[in-house]
Amino acid sequence: MVPKTEKLELTKSTSSEIDAFLDRAQTRKTGRIIFAMDATQSRQPSWDRAAHLQAEMFQAVESLGSLEVQLVFYRGFGECKASNWTSNASELRRLMLSVQCMGGLTQIGKILTNALRQTEQRSVSAVIFIGDAFEENIDEVCHKAGQLGLQGTPALMFQEGQDQVAAQAFKEIARLTNGAYCPFDDLSANALKDLLSAAAVYAVGGLEALDNMSAKGSGSLRRALPSLK
User: Fold this and answer.
1) Is the dihedral of CA 39, 144, 201, 118 positive or negative?
2) Which of 30, 33, 98, 139 has the most Cβ atoms closer than 10 angstroms to its Cβ?
3) Which domains does the chain possess?
4) 3-class DSSP state for residue 39?
């Protein structure tokens, strides 16, 4: 015997509800972040920490819009790879946990070159970079940073540790791209969590969103990126 099914009554939306929905849809934005990391040998503990914390970026922007992320990393002898874009935190975590750090020199110039290529296809809200060293020609890298700045894509340079050569280079890259330089303690997971969350909010909603969230009680987000103007 075929069971009897009940007909569902569909409730029609009023015109004001539809208008409200459309207004919300129009104000929600999609941020695109290139999440770049140094994956040389000494970085494995930090890499694993970032893999577990990256979901904070997606969670931080839930009320503002959505986030698309491309993972880029360098390691070994001249190896620099970029993933496809993803809007899924679990997928990004899976990608990160599949990477093993290997010894090698920094390749920040290649990260900036990739960012420039991506901006030619579609606007990129920000480049997040996490690293602890700089071993390249500063003038060549700064030239690429200047080009990225002209495209309107800020680089948010997060330095782990206290290497002075890296600090000077990261500060200059941030300046040329109208971005931000943020040192943090390699033992502080909370500091990295705040940096990633703040970067995501900035990428989706700009400084206004970052300031609004700070005013609502998330003051640590604005403090994480104090040099953004």
Assistant:
1) negative
2) 33
3) 30-224 (3.40.50.410)
4) coil
Structural tokens at position 171: 């500060």
The rounded distance, in Å, linking the Cα atoms of 111 and 84 is 14
Cα 125 to Cα 116: distance, rounded to the nearest angstrom: 12
β-partners of residue 80 are: 74
Dist. CA 206–CA 107, nearest whole Å: 28
CA distance 125 to 128: 10
For every one of its 229 residues, what pLDDT tens digit does the chain have, with 9 covering 90 and above? 444 444 444 445 555 555 544 444 445 588 999 999 999 988 888 899 899 999 999 998 988 889 999 999 999 999 999 999 999 999 999 999 999 999 999 999 999 999 999 999 999 999 999 999 999 999 999 999 999 999 999 999 999 989 999 999 999 999 999 999 998 876 577 788 888 998 999 999 888 888 887 666 555 566 667 767 6
User: Closest Cα partner for 155 from 166, 170, 138, 165?
Assistant: 170
Query: Two tokens at 118?
Result: 């991506």
H-state helical runs in 15-61: 15-27, 44-53, 55-60
* DSSP for residue 75: E
